Amino acid sequence: MTMPFTALQVLGLCDSHLTQLYPNHSVHKDAAKAVFALQKSAKAAGFDLRLASAYRSFDRQLSIWCEKANGQRAVLDVNSQPIDISQLSADKLINAICTFTAIPGASRHHWGSDIDIYDANGFDANNRPQLISSEYSGQGPSAAMFNWLLKNAEDLGFAFPYLEHKKNGIAVEPWHLSYLPVARKAQQVLTLNCFKTHLAQQKFALCDRLLQDADTLYKNLVEQYYV
Ligand SMILES: [Zn+2]
């Protein structure tokens, strides 16, 4: 490990911890070799493991959050069905958005240790991955690779933080992998205090309500996925 994380890095406000792996896909400098090794092992097993998403900045997460809060982007339930948000109270709306979308500043994608992956062998130009559970189960295009990862990811330093349904938590995400040696360093820095202090300085949609409930939201959406 080169350097410990700073608060700005774990909040997605600074990108000095990153290196670009592919156009638009950056990861933490200390995760790059591991991601390449993961891809190489997957290839040897017959899969074409590609990144749908890697590092995401605070600003990027903020625009996704605000589009959902403002009704410009669909808010989906656990079955990937759009929810009518027009009648929801602020706390119900927060819970609905948080099923699939992290609060800006609280995304594991800020750390550069976490990636969303799919098996490119199962897709083509007319059939792009959507990152939905059905693609990773049964005969789904990324299902065989997912099963292979369940057996092999750990040996390569990776784990799936969002595989289990947890109370008041995030939807199951079989596409989201975390490189633990780096993620664990980030977890030490993204404390409740760090999360709250930063939130108190923000003014984005639903922010006041997020701050009011910060202790519970941090526990349910961030800390209970620490590995
Ligand atoms: Zn993800």
- What order do the SSEs take from the amino end to the carboxyl end, as H and E? HEEHEHHEHEEHHHH
CATH domain class = Alpha Beta
> Percent helix among the residues?
25-40%
Largest sheet: 4 strands, antiparallel
What would you call the structural class? alpha+beta
Average pLDDT score: 96
Under the CATH scheme, the architecture is 2-Layer Sandwich
Instruction: State the assembly state of the protein chains.
Output: single chain
Tally of DSSP β-strands: 6
Head-to-tail CA distance between termini: 18 Å
Beta-strand percent range:
5-15%
Task: Tell me the domain tally.
Answer: 1
Overall geometry comes to: globular
CATH overall fold name: Muramoyl-pentapeptide Carboxypeptidase, domain 2
Poorly predicted tracts of residues: none
Q: What's the helix count?
A: 9
Q: What are the main properties of this structure?
A:
227 residues; alpha+beta; Muramoyl-pentapeptide Carboxypeptidase, domain 2; four-stranded antiparallel β-sheet; two-stranded antiparallel ribbon; 6 strands; 36% helix; globular; binds zinc ion
Describe it for me?
- The chain has helices at 7-10, 32-44, 58-69, 90-98, 143-152, 180-189, 192-199, 207-212, 214-222, and strands at residues 18-22, 25-28, 49-53, 114-119, 158-159, 176-179.
- With 227 residues, it is an alpha+beta fold.
- It has one domain: Muramoyl-pentapeptide Carboxypeptidase, domain 2 (2-Layer Sandwich).
- A four-stranded antiparallel sheet has the order 3-4-6-5. It has a two-stranded antiparallel sheet with strand order 1-2.
- The longest helix has 13 residues, at 32-44.
- The chain is globular, with a radius of gyration of 17 Å.
- The protein starts with 6 loop residues before the first helix and ends in a 5-residue tail after the last helix.
